[in-house]
Design a protein that fits this description.
CATH topology: Rossmann fold
Strand content: 15-25%
CATH architecture: 3-Layer(aba) Sandwich
Helix content: 10-25%
GO molecular function: metal ion binding; nicotinamidase activity
Pfam families: Isochorismatase
Structural class: alpha/beta
Bound molecules: pyrazine-2-carboxylic acid, zinc ion
Strand order of the largest sheet: 5-2-1-6-7-8
Family: Belongs to the isochorismatase family.
Number of helices: 4
CATH superfamily: Isochorismatase-like
Protein name: Nicotinamidase
EC number: 3.5.1.19
CATH class: Alpha Beta
Radius of gyration: 16 Å
């Protein structure tokens, strides 16, 4: 068992990010058995869940004439537009059916404000509106995080970068992540993580 100052953060292992889903990450479901095994190793286990209203600003369908993967300017900076995904209370937003959700001790829902996206488990995409996860972890004396999940080049990346910025030691288990890989984003994410002193392990 890992010591009490460590937590496992399981990012967005939801049906819409798995094969057959609206924003499927190639092979996204392949990580579920490994994550289930890891859940038994950690005393603190936090899951995140992308949780958008149907009118969310990150959906291309909500912008006239826009297609998924186009970039628009939002008040908080550039925003990639996505297919409609992880709409609150739909099957696509549910966790993968094989994921051992009963082992989660805290679930962070993010991206529920219509006007702002939230890749990171810690802050919305303005990089300042907190989700409450930092308070939850620091109140429990946790300073070391292991991150796994989907997608390695978006929500895992931004969560890991914010965690380092907040002072956590961060390890990303690449073998328990999969990426969307938009225009080389997966290799860019690896390089950005290494630059930020995030430890990448298989
Ligand atoms: C994600 C794009 C849009 C993710 C969420 O979980 O990585 N990516 N929403
Ligand atoms: Zn999303």
């Amino acid at each position: 068992m890992r010591p009490a100052n460590e937590a496992l953060i399981v990012i967005d292992v939801q049906n819409d990010f798995c094969p057959g889903g609206a924003l499927a990450v190639p092979d996204g479901d392949a990580i579920v058995p490994r994550i289930n095994a890891l859940l038994g190793e950690f005393q603190t286990r936090v899951f995140t869940q992308d949780w958008h209203p149907a009118d969310h600003a990150s959906f291309a369908a909500n912008h006239d004439g826009r297609n998924p993967h186009e970039v628009i300017d939002m008040p908080y900076g550039p925003q990639i537009l996505w297919p409609v995904h992880c709409v609150q209370d739909t099957p696509g937003a549910a966790f993968h059916p094989d994921l051992d959700v009963a082992k989660a001790d805290h679930i962070v829902r993010k991206g529920f404000r219509p006007e702002i996206d939230s890749y990171s488990a810690f802050f919305e995409n303005d990089h300042e509106t907190p989700t409450g996860l930092d308070d939850h972890l620091s109140a429990r004396g946790i300073d070391k995080l292991t991150m796994v999940g989907l997608a390695m080049d978006f929500c895992v990346l931004y969560s890991a970068l914010d965690a380092v910025r907040l002072g956590y030691g961060v390890t990303v288990l690449e073998g328990a992540c999969r990426g969307i890989d938009l225009n080389g984003s997966l290799e860019d994410a690896r390089a950005t993580m290494l630059d930020a002193t995030i430890v990448l392990e298989p």
